[in-house]
């Protein structure tokens, strides 16, 4: 099954699985990866002791670490389901840029929300990138049918994305599901939406100028 996947989607699955294995206590353990988890903006900045404070690279590296097998499994299931068709549509470079922008954007939103909290937590997981993929799938394939896992209800991708977005907003605002970075999920969707709008030249961005006209090919093909 993996050999049929597009290159970047396959690489994301493999990288996340390998790093999760290395996080286990019988190998390197979580403490080794503390400098790569998204630490809250608090205390003084110390570039020579990155384990307990925020570092810029954490805006990307946190998205490749996970706290449990279930956390990893459901995130990678979403990358498998939604990442492959998006990469096949966009190509490797644009897909990778989009995914990493969503991961970093989710991290920025989480840092902002965490700065307003008394005891912000360390964050890890690919969920910000995953929610960005969900949004992109709903925008590019709005009428494609998808199936919820719990409960197993089929619905259009556009409806699926709207329900997930509203659900995350409610859970984040009410605190009904603590221990989950709901605003990071919303941040991944927000930055994904902004990037797609930018690529399309839609508000709030200026229309992109049309490219140069293609020159006619006057050369005959020789068989």
Written overview of the protein:
- The chain has 223 residues and is mainly α.
- The chain has one domain: Rhomboid-like (Rhomboid-like fold).
- It has seven helices and two strands.
- It has a two-stranded antiparallel ribbon.
- Helix 6 packs across helix 7.
- The longest helix is centred in the middle third of the chain and has 23 residues.
- The two termini are 37 Å apart.
- InterPro entries: Peptidase_S54_rhomboid_dom, Rhomboid-like_sf.
- One of its GO terms (cellular component) is membrane.
- It is a multi-pass membrane protein.
- Pfam families: Rhomboid (PF01694).
The span between the termini is: 37 Å
Q: Please report the number of helical segments.
A: 7
**Topology pattern, helix = H, strand = E:** HHHHHEEHH
Strand order of the largest sheet: 1-2
**CATH homologous superfamily annotation:** Rhomboid-like
Radius of gyration: 20 Å
The CATH architecture designation is Up-down Bundle
Q: What's the rounded overall pLDDT mean?
A: 85
Enter the CATH topology name.
Answer: Rhomboid-like fold
Strand content: under 5%
Q: CATH top level?
A: Mainly Alpha
Helix % is 40-55%
Could you describe the largest sheet, including whether it forms a barrel? 2 strands, antiparallel
Number of domains: 1
Instruction: Give the overall shape, derived from the CA principal axes.
Output: globular
Tally of DSSP β-strands: 2
Quickly give the structural class.
mainly alpha
């Amino acid at each position: 099954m993996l050999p049929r996947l597009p290159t970047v989607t396959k690489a994301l699955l493999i990288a996340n699985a390998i790093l999760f294995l290395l996080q286990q206590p019988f190998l390197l353990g979580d403490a080794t990866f503390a400098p790569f988890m998204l630490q809250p903006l608090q205390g003084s900045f110390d570039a020579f002791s990155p384990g307990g404070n925020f570092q810029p690279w954490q805006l990307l590296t946190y998205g490749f670490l996970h706290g449990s097998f279930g956390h990893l499994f459901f995130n990678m299931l979403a990358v498998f389901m939604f990442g492959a068709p998006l990469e096949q549509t966009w190509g490797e470079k644009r897909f990778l840029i989009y995914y990493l922008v969503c991961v970093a954007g989710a991290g920025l939103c989480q840092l902002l929300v965490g700065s307003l909290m008394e005891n912000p937590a360390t964050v890890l997981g690919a969920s910000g990138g995953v929610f960005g993929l969900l949004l992109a799938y709903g925008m590019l394939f709005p009428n494609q049918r998808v199936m919820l896992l719990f409960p197993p209800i089929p619905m259009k991708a556009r409806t699926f994305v709207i329900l997930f977005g509203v659900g995350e907003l409610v859970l984040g605002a009410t605190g009904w599901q603590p221990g989950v970075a709901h605003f990071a999920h919303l941040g991944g969707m927000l930055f994904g939406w902004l990037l797609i709008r930018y690529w399309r030249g839609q508000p709030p961005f200026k229309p992109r100028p049309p490219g140069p006209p293609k020159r006619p090919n006057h050369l005959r093909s020789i068989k």
